[in-house]
Amino acid sequence: MWFRRDLRLHDNPALNAAIQTGAPVVCLYILETDSTLRPMGGASQWWLDKSLKRLRESIEDIGGQLLFKRGLARETLDEIVSQTGANAVFWNRRYDQAGRDIDSDIKQSLKQQGLGAESYNGSLLTEPWTQKTGSGGYYKVFTPYWKSVQANYQPSAELGAPTQLKSVPKIETENIEDWGLHPTKPDWSTEFGPKWLPGEEGAAQRLQAFISGPVSEYKDHRNRPDLEKGTSGLSPHLAFGEIGPAQIWRATQAKIEAGDANQANAMTFLSEVVWREFSYVLLYHNPELATENYKPAFNAMPWREDEAGLKAWQQGQTGYPIVDAGMRQLWAIGWMHNRVRMIVASFLTKHLLLHWSHGEDWFWDTLVDADPAANSASWQWTAGSGADAAPYFRVFNPITQGEKFDESGDYVRKWCPELARLPHKFLYQPWEAGPLILHAAGVKLGETYPHPIVDHKEGRQRALDAYDILKERRDAA
Question: Is this prediction's pTM over 0.90?
Answer without folding.
Answer: yes
